[in-house]
Design goal:
14 helices, 41% helix
Length: 349
């Protein structure tokens, strides 16, 4: 039915952009409306595929077909930022507005969670004033309290434990580049942080193998490792944890890193830089990866994490990755607030 709605030119364009005329019954037959997104651990394989499908659909229709889709007209989003950010703020504000909605930006100077007003009261107040909340916070427990007390969806814009909206953008970027996620091997070289945790809670569900290299003492949370191992066994994927970057990079399609010193860890900078010596991603790292290897980084980037030769090379997908933060936050918001069904065929995963 969907194919009949599309002109032959549109279908040709979709094929050239790695879209296929194929629907997944599971991913197409349910709604995520009313759900929150605190961690990708809470989403099934089909639910993750649907989120990426909606995101890719919106990107194609709005960016490439120049369609106007006011899917969120009359709706507003409260954006709580305890931590500053370029990509999270810009992608959410521009994306929500592009869909006809109204973003409201709240810094720690505007709203003091748990200080001037409890998180419980804040959640209940915002539930009566807006339709959805995105919160970028220090402690994941703050998000859990907001979600418990709110009657509207809560999106994790980043916490100390997870960064789900970043990973959705990464998956969309890899889908667009490789044509499929299933069977890819992704290597993480760096800190066992919130970004890595989100990969570990989702990669196996999409058929992605994970190879992880972290310095000793900087491993992922034990509970996250346990869940990742369970997911790997359930979905038949491989999971490797090591302290050797070259071992982790061997045979990989995608090399990924992130900052070694996150906000709030500035006092540890000197020690961290010393502990992460040898973890910089270079062309030498890529020499043991697969011939088609690519590079991702959620940004902002420091040169000690990846050298210029890799970062600015044709293998680097970091700028499409940054742009896809907008399309995936749009896809997530539309999925949590509406019953929207994508108008183009589902991507192949």
């Amino acid at each position: 039915m969907c194919s009949r709605l599309l002109s032959s030119n549109v279908l040709k364009c979709l094929k050239q952009n790695n879209w296929v005329r194929k629907f997944s019954t599971g991913a197409a037959s349910f709604t995520l409306k009313g759900r929150s997104c605190l961690t990708l651990k809470d989403f099934s394989s089909d639910e993750l595929r649907r989120l990426l499908w909606v995101s890719g659909d919106l990107k194609h229709r709005i960016k490439h077909e120049k369609q106007y889709l006011p899917l969120l007209q009359g709706k507003s989003i409260a954006m709580i930022f305890e931590k500053r950010s370029t990509r999270t703020r810009m992608s959410t504000e521009t994306g929500f507005a592009l869909l006809g909605g109204h973003p409201c930006f709240l810094t720690s100077q505007d709203i003091h969670l748990g200080v001037n007003e409890s998180s419980t009261d804040t959640a209940r107040v915002l539930s009566g004033l807006c339709d959805i909340v995105l919160a970028r916070v220090y402690s994941h427990s703050t998000l859990e309290e907001l979600s418990k007390e709110a009657s509207i969806p809560i999106i994790n814009g980043l916490s100390d434990l997870y960064h789900p909206i970043q990973i959705l953008a990464d998956y969309l970027t890899l889908q667009e580049h490789y044509g499929s996620l299933s069977g890819l091997t992704l290597t993480w070289i760096g800190d066992g942080n919130n970004v890595l945790h989100s990969f570990m809670m989702s990669a196996a569900k999409l058929g992605v193998h994970l190879r992880i290299a972290t310095p000793k003492g900087y491993e992922p949370e034990k509970t996250v490792i346990e869940e990742a191992r369970r997911l790997s066994q359930e979905h038949g994927t491989q999971l490797l944890l090591t302290s050797d970057p070259m071992e982790a990079a061997h045979g990989s399609n995608v090399l990924v890193t992130d900052t070694w010193v996150s906000m709030g860890q500035e006092e540890e900078k000197k020690k961290r830089l010393n502990d992460f010596r040898g973890y910089q991603i270079t062309m030498q790292t890529g020499s043991v990866a697969k011939p088609d290897w690519t590079f991702l980084h959620c940004l902002p980037r420091k040169q000690e994490e990846v050298d210029d030769q890799v970062f600015y090379s044709s293998r680097s997908l970091v700028f499409p990755e940054a742009e896809n933060r907008k399309w995936t936050i749009m896809g997530l918001a539309v999925s949590l607030l509406t019953d929207y069904t994508p108008q183009i065929p589902m991507m192949k995963f």
